[in-house]
Write a structure and sequence with these properties.
The protein has 9 helices and 15 strands. By secondary structure, the protein is α/β, with parallel strands linked by helices. The strands form 3 sheets. Strands 8-1-9-13-11-12 form a 6-stranded mixed sheet, with helices on both faces. α4 crosses α9, α5 packs across α6 and α7 crosses α9. The radius of gyration is 25 Å and the shape is globular.
């Protein structure tokens, strides 16, 4: 199994998002995860430590009030300056528990959503909307060796695991001798703790495995699930931290992953990652079959350490687990940087994992 997550830090539109100030149309948002975003120019706010109020200083600017008035042909209501005039509610209108979406949100935003859905604005009862950088990823660096993209964490490893599974099945005979089920599980909500119906801390994956465990022959159907987990292995695939040349002092001297030098195995003595020695032996043999380079990473003893879905899935499943990911710079930034070659490294590693796990897993002996 390979587990990864598809979500990234972002901004989610509030249920009532209609805001404006100083001639600007703004959108009320909630923060999702820990996101680094552009803010007030440093020339206007020189702080030793960058801080801002997420409730009062994080309203995205959607446009100008004057431009919206010009688009709709409306005038400024003298009773509420800078606000387009509104039609009074009719006493004959049917009762509505909540205000219409066009009243809770800027009408043009609702119009854009309706146009994308191919319906009228009146048909939009409610919606869930997140804001994100729409600029496409691009290749850069002096020798086109870098990827500049939003949301590499963790769409990068989601892509590698998906392509690894697909490529492992390219041969029509790929499953002829296969004794295991090849599975990937891409979860939501990792950035906010995973405690949701779609998150890794739900019963989704255990329930799927429980049903799958009954498909093959088993000496005892009552323990088929436990037998399956005992012979299973989970790779928790989440992007890793490349060494940053401007902050190299933040990294442990002997564990500084470099971009384009291979996928990074993450290790933490306090179980922030689920990796252990048998897992390292297994993934090393998997990588050897395809000549995929690997790297090792631990944080400094005086540094905090992030975590992944690996430890929580290892705890809930009891299956052998290893944490790894491709190295990147500026994780959680609105624009992140990764290595071009590492995408291929990740895909080939996972393809080899699916192809060779059944053969290798019984050969890993722990004394």
């Amino acid at each position: 199994m390979i587990g990864a997550h598809t979500d990234s830090p972002t901004l989610r539109v509030k249920p009532i998002s209609k805001k404006q100030a100083e001639g600007f149309i703004q959108v009320g948002v909630e923060t999702y995860g820990v996101l680094r975003i552009p803010t007030l120019a440093i020339h206007l706010d020189r702080q030793e430590t960058f801080t801002f109020n997420k409730e009062t200083q994080l309203f995205p600017i959607a446009g100008l009030v004057a431009a919206e008035l010009n688009r709709t042909g409306q005038t400024i209501n003298p009773r509420t300056p800078e606000s387009p005039s509104t039609v009074n509610e009719s006493p004959n209108e049917p009762f509505a528990p909540l205000k219409l979406s066009t009243e809770r949100h800027h009408p043009y935003i609702v119009e854009l959503i309706a146009a994308a859905a191919g319906v009228s604005s009146a048909s939009i009862v409610d919606f869930e909307l997140v804001l994100y950088d729409t600029q496409k990823a691009c290749i850069g660096g002096l020798n086109d060796e870098l990827i500049f993209s939003a949301r590499l964490d963790n769409l990068g490893m989601s892509y590698c695991s998906t392509m690894g599974l697909i490529n492992s099945l390219s041969s029509p005979f790929a499953l002829n001798e296969e004794k295991s089920i090849r599975l990937i599980s891409l979860f939501d909500h990792e950035e906010i703790g995973s405690e949701t119906a779609q998150g890794a801390d739900s019963n989704f994956l255990p329930s799927v495995i429980r049903r799958l465990s009954l498909l093959g022959p088993s000496k005892d159907k009552e323990t088929a699930y436990e037998q399956t987990l005992a012979s299973s292995f989970l790779v928790s695939a989440d992007m890793a931290h490349s060494v940053n040349p401007n902050y190299s002092f933040k990294y442990e001297n002997d564990h500084k992953p470099e971009m384009n030098k291979g996928t990074v195995i993450k290790i933490n003595a306090n179980a922030r990652y689920a990796t252990n020695a048998p897992g390292i032996v297994l993934i090393q043999e998997v990588a050897r079959r395809r000549k995929v380079p690997l790297q090792l990473f631990v944080v400094r003893n005086d540094s905090s350490c992030g975590s992944t879905i690996g430890p929580m899935l290892a705890a809930s499943l009891g299956a052998r687990t290893l944490d790894l990911g491709n190295p990147q710079l500026s994780m959680h930034s609105i624009r992140e940087t990764g290595g071009v070659n590492d995408v291929g490294h990740g895909v080939e590693l996972f393809e080899s994992f699916f192809e060779h796990y059944s053969e290798l897993q019984s050969k890993i002996l722990v004394d």
